[in-house]
């Protein structure tokens, strides 16, 4: 579809068939998919490093036991961006915000791609993660443009783009590094980010803010107020910390056993494991609609159970790589379903504060991702794949237990 076609159908009109009155316009399918694509590309920048860790370590002479901090630095920047940058979407025109963030992401990607030493690389990674939070601005933006009855489905579609971006980042990075080296991954992403920013600047509708102005310090302080006031936000934030720690516990050290004997896979082959996870993410895209229908808690319970069971298969990697493929599919399916259900539930409580709700929720996601990335490589260095599998299973079990304990506070079907 051309940019002109997207622009002409960006906001789909809606009409109340019973009264003949026009209701709030909905978000067109074409613009929803554009948000999903832009979100996927933005978040992929934070996950390219997973299949590249050994190559980056060799190029910059970094110890293998601490190479997970390459991912941790990106997640640190992402966490800072969630707290300091995402809430600004409730204060200014979101169109201007996402375009400026995307352009700054291009600069950060170029710095990573040309980094000559670790002293340059790590600050550049932090900056890249900081501006990669544009992906969450897209989610809040899409949710604010959607009608209430379709919000869960829209969030589900955009979030599917995010999860696909995370998963396919491994595939793309693995393929590119074998052809042109790890630096080319970030330089190509800079080019694609610049191109999609040009499209966004043309077709994304403006969203000027009205009402009394709020100072930036009060805006940031309100994150903590929201967290204290909204039980659903607190529960779902802690679940986010656990499930994303669980997934990065798998993703970060995965390249180490697969690139070593007996498998000795190329980086391109290792990257193909993202396709298995992508299939799971596509299958979980219904989670948003189920949440709209009132089944968010049931979706969460089933998905967390699948994440726990997936580690039984992942732990059998020494016996067959097919066990790992199946386990990755189940783990990513569960992640997507819980994440979409959580966002659908959270966005109901304060529609006027969607950017701040996103920030408060996703900072726990970033914290979990950083912890899982940093700890898992240390565990692998000492206890190999068995240790990683036990750590992942323990985190998944903790998430399921926490959900079960907090469930009576919120009811089963309508929360």
Core attributes:
415 residues; mainly alpha; two-stranded antiparallel ribbon; 18 helices; 2 strands; 73% helix
Explain this structure to me?
By secondary structure, the chain is mainly alpha-helical. 73% of the residues lie in helices and 1% in strands. It is built from 18 helices and two strands. The chain has helices at 3-8, 29-44, 53-60, 69-84, 94-113, 118-131, 134-145, 151-180, 182-203, 216-229, 231-251, 255-259, 267-271, 273-283, 287-292, 296-314, 321-346, 354-406, and strands at 11-12, 26-27. It has a two-stranded antiparallel sheet with strand order 1-2. α4 packs parallel to α6 and α10 runs parallel beside α18. The longest helix is centred in the last third of the chain and has 53 residues, at 354-406. The model is unreliable at 1-23 and 411-415 (pLDDT under 50).
Summarize the structure.
The protein is mainly α. It has helices at 3-8, 29-44, 53-60, 69-84, 94-113, 118-131, 134-145, 151-180, 182-203, 216-229, 231-251, 255-259, 267-271, 273-283, 287-292, 296-314, 321-346, 354-406, and strands at residues 11-12, 26-27.
């Amino acid at each position: 579809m051309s940019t002109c076609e997207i622009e002409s159908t960006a906001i789909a009109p809606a009409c109340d068939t019973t009264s003949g009155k026009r209701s709030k316009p909905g978000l067109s399918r074409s613009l929803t998919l554009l948000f999903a694509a832009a979100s996927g590309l933005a978040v992929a920048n934070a996950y390219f490093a997973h299949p590249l860790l050994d190559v980056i370590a060799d190029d910059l002479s970094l110890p293998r036991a601490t190479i997970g901090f390459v991912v941790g630095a990106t997640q640190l920047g992402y966490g800072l961006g969630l707290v300091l940058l995402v809430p600004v979407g409730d204060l200014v025109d979101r169109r201007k915000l996402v375009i400026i963030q995307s352009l700054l992401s291009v600069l950060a990607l170029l710095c990573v791609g040309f980094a000559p030493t670790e002293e340059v690389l790590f600050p550049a990674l932090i900056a890249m993660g900081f501006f990669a939070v544009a992906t969450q601005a897209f989610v809040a933006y899409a949710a604010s443009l959607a009608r209430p009855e379709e919000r869960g489905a829209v969030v589900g579609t955009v979030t599917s783009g995010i999860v696909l971006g995370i998963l396919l980042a491994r595939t793309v990075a693995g393929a590119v590094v074998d052809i042109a080296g790890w630096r080319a991954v970030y330089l190509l992403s800079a080019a694609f980010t610049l191109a999609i920013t040009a499209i966004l600047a043309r077709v994304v509708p403006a969203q000027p803010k009205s009402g009394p102005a709020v100072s930036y310090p009060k805006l940031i302080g309100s994150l903590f107020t929201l967290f204290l006031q909204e039980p659903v936000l607190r529960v779902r934030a802690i679940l986010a910390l656990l499930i994303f720690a669980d997934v990065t516990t798998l993703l970060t050290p995965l390249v180490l056993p697969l690139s070593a004997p007996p498998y000795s896979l190329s980086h391109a082959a290792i990257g193909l494991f993202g396709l298995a996870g992508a299939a799971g993410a596509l299958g979980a895209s219904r989670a948003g609609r189920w949440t709209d229908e009132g089944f968010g808690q049931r979706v969460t319970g089933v998905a967390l159970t699948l994440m726990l069971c997936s580690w039984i298969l992942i732990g059998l990697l020494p016996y067959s790589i097919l066990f790992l493929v199946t386990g990755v599919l189940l783990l990513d399916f569960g992640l997507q379903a819980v994440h979409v259900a959580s966002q659908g539930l959270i966005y109901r409580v304060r529609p006027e504060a969607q950017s701040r709700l996103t920030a408060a929720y996703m900072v726990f996601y970033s914290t979990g991702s950083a912890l899982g990335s940093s700890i898992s490589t240390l565990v692998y260095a000492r206890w190999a794949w068995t240790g990683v599998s036990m750590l992942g299973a323990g985190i998944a079990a903790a998430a399921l237990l926490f959900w079960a304990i907090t469930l009576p506070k919120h009811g089963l079907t309508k929360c």
